[in-house]
């Protein structure tokens, strides 16, 4: 019976694409590769019941997804990566020169990574010649993550990527994008550390929800505090 249902769902996707499916069917379908011999319907329905929506499922962390009985570990690792991956490809791969030119460009690329969730996370965006986006890497996660920078890790990733510059970013789960004194101090500290190895810190972005950000270099569209560094319209 389960195999017959799978076949019907596959046929729907083949004929009309995944968006023709109901939300629970989309999750069923996406779980097929991880559970080739098990019924994925109960897991799909429990995911929706627990998190409330398809969007919330893909915004959940690996740890949160693993609280669902039967959820495959590899699927729990993969699902949270889908939205950032697709967003970044859409913005910087398809019909784009892949450049990050302004604080707004950087913030928009970072929001899928940082614009949701209750945990504080620190990411580093690595840029090459003329602001070419090379990589976006998770640096730290947990309480007060922004105050616990792993400078060696940031630099190691930069050197491996062949980066010229780094944009630091972290989230404020409170929803308030204004920088703290700790944010300002960590920015100065990282800027000086990068300069010692010939790298540049091009910005420090705070994300506080989708669409809400603050640049410590360039402020925001409606800045409410003085900017830490001299503003610059473009990085390169």
Characterization of the model:
The chain is of the alpha+beta class and 236 residues long. The protein has two domains: 81 residues, DNA polymerase, domain 1 (Orthogonal Bundle); 119 residues, Cytidine Deaminase, domain 2, CATH 3.40.140. The protein contains nine helices and five strands. A five-stranded mixed sheet has the order 2-1-3-4-5, with helices on both faces. Helix 2 packs across helix 3 and helix 6 packs antiparallel against helix 7. The longest helix has 20 residues. The protein is elongated, with a radius of gyration of 20 Å. About 5% of the residues have low confidence.
Keywords:
single chain; 236 residues; alpha+beta; Cytidine Deaminase, domain 2; 2 domains; 14% strand; elongated
CATH architectural group of the largest domain: 3-Layer(aba) Sandwich
The N- and C-terminal alpha carbons lie at a distance of: 59 Å
**The CATH homologous superfamily of the largest domain:** Cytidine Deaminase, domain 2
Shape: elongated
Structural class: alpha+beta
Broad CATH class of the largest domain: Alpha Beta
Looking across the biggest beta sheet, what order are the strands in?
2-1-3-4-5
Rg is: 20 Å
């Amino acid at each position: 019976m389960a195999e017959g249902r799978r076949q019907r769902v596959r046929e729907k996707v083949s004929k009309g694409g995944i968006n023709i499916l109901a939300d629970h069917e989309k999750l069923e379908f996406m779980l097929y590769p991880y559970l080739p011999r098990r019924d994925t319907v109960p897991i799909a329905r429990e995911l929706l019941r627990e998190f409330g929506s398809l969007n919330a499922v893909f915004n959940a962390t690996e740890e949160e997804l693993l609280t669902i009985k039967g959820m495959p570990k590899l699927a729990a690792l993969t699902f949270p990566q889908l939205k950032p991956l697709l967003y970044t490809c859409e913005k910087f791969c398809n019909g784009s020169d892949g450049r990050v030119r302004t604080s707004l460009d950087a913030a928009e690329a970072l929001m899928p990574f940082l614009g949701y969730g209750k945990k504080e996370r620190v990411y580093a965006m690595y840029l090459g010649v003329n602001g070419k986006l090379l990589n976006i890497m998770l640096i730290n996660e947990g309480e007060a993550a922004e105050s616990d920078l792993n400078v060696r890790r940031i630099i190691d990733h930069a050197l491996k990527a062949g980066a010229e510059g780094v944009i630091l970013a972290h989230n404020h789960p409170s929803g308030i994008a204004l920088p703290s004194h700790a944010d300002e101090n960590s920015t100065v500290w990282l800027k000086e550390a990068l300069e010692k190895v010939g790298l540049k810190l091009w910005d420090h972005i705070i994300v506080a929800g989708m669409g809400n950000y603050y640049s410590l270099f360039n402020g925001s569209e409606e800045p409410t505090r003085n900017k830490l560094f001299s503003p610059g319209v473009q990085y390169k």
